[in-house]
Amino acid sequence: MPFGRRIGTLLLALALVGVPAVVLRVLCVGHSCDEPVTAAAEVPFCSLPEQTRTRIAAGFREGRSPDLLAMTGDVHVAGGTAFSPRDLDPPWPSRVPDDRGRIPIVFSGTGVAAGAEVPAGTELQDIAPTAAEIIGLKRPHPKVRAGRAVEDVAGGQTPRLVLEVVLKGVGSRDLEADAQAWPELRSLVDAGAATMDGEVGFLPLDPAAAMMTLGTGGSPRQHGVTGSLIRDDDGKLVRAWGNEAPVPESIIAALGDDLDEKLHEEPVIGLSGTDVADRGAIGGDWYIDVDKDEVAIAKRDPIGAAVTMLETEGFGDDDVPDLMVVALEGSLRDMDAGLGRVLGAARQVAGDSLTVVVTATGSLAPDEDEDSLDASQIVQQVESSVGASQPVVEAAAPGGLYLDQRTLAKLSIPEDDVLAALKAVKADDGTRLFGDAFPAIAVSFARYC
User: Is the dihedral angle over the CA atoms 195, 201, 207, 208 positive or is it negative?
Assistant: First the structure.
């Protein structure tokens, strides 16, 4: 069938199942483009800046991401159903450009070429392929991952241990605002290849998605862990890396998976984290029933757990490269002190044969003069506006809403009615909260913008 006829058939099928009119407007179906060109500025999603669209598309996977997505305006909206008050509440993406996704990326130690540089704009997904190049690992199926090794960083001897430390909930803007709080990190920056202008590379800035991107070298669009909540293959909403999460969790393998598989389970691979979703940084369920990684989820003391693991589990004992990931939360000073402790333990077991990688997941804190709204308030307003006899929102996630499709079908409530209610949500001052809101399918057709 010719390409044009295939597209026409696809669009007709989509129209029959109720694609929102705005998507048809994007694709110029029928007479939808007969309106003046100026109307295109009102098209949801496509009216966003190109870089913002690209990052939302990179953070989106159909079937796993929320059903309705929204961009805030001037108000900082944070969190979602999966986050308690003690958690790191990721911000919802905003139409107002910001640098929350700007992060440090540091490579230091054995295997890092002298004089190497990390260019500005290097992304989180580029860390895994760079680490693989440092340890000389040729990963299978490289085309399934968007990340690419940073040129000329790898050089010299292969390290016995790669230590990756992740500062969760912060970005370069936070480091620059308190420049005296991170002497340990600064010493690594000065001694290695580093940039303060790296990028998470996708939106929203959910640490669960960031940890999986670090682990795989692919974007959330590729690995499928788009946030702390995802839908499984049956459409059930589950917590990423929780007991009910799909197996394998990621749609592509992590560096730790491939390292174990290629070297026949000889490497020691470990994680000390603060949340179960940190497991994405090492993987562990891609090659079924063979992986035996060391994992500690220790929210109160991930540093102590990491030090104990390094001292007792055989890291750095032989020439087979090992991988250890440590995820930290807290103040900059506390995380930097923790970095120092972990570095000391790693040097004790690996000596000079140690590569250190430090990065972060993006800044979550609102600006001092920024109004803030909790995601639960959005859900309340949407439910009140729809006025259904049962809740129609299954969960809120940073950047959107998961809808209870059974309730919508049972009560014959069109998804567009919930979208209209989402668009109508008001900030505390009575103004419209969202600068843009759109169905997930609008992102699926982003290439037509």
Answer: negative
pLDDT of residue 20: 45
Give dist(CA 208, CA 82) in Å, integer. 11
pLDDT digits (tens, 9 = 90+) for 49-81: 899 999 999 999 999 999 999 999 888 898 998
Residue among 425, 400, 386 at smallest CA distance from 68: 400
pTM given for the model: 0.90
> Does 217 map to a domain?
yes
Is 16 a domain residue? Answer: no
DSSP 81-117: TT--TTS--PBPPBSS---TTEEEEEEEETTBPTT--
Query: Which pLDDT score is estimated for 42?
Result: 54
Q: Are 384 and 250 in a shared domain?
A: no
Sign of CA dihedral 40, 41, 42, 48: positive
With residues binned 3-state (H G I as helix, E B as strand, rest as coil), the percentages for the chain, rounded to 5, are 35, 20, 45
Which residues, at least 6 apart from 74, have a Cβ–Cβ distance to it below 8 Å? 96, 370, 371
Say what the pLDDT of residue 372 is.
78
Claim to verify: residue 135 and residue 259 sit in the same structural domain: yes
Q: Which of 211, 244, 235 is nearest to 225 (CA)?
A: 211
Per the structure, the count of domains in the chain is: 2
Claim to verify: residue 167 and residue 62 sit in the same structural domain: no
Q: Which of 23-32, 104-113, 404-413 shows the lowest mean pLDDT across its residues?
A: 23-32
Please tell me the total number of residues recorded for the chain in this structure. Answer: 449
With bands split at pLDDT 50, 70 and 90, how would you rate the model's confidence at 9?
A: very low
CATH number at residue 121: 3.40.720.10
Assign 248 to helix, strand or coil: coil
Question: What residue numbers bound the domain in which 393 lies?
Answer: 44-96+370-448
Q: Which residues contact 49 (CB under 8 A, 6 or more apart)?
A: 97
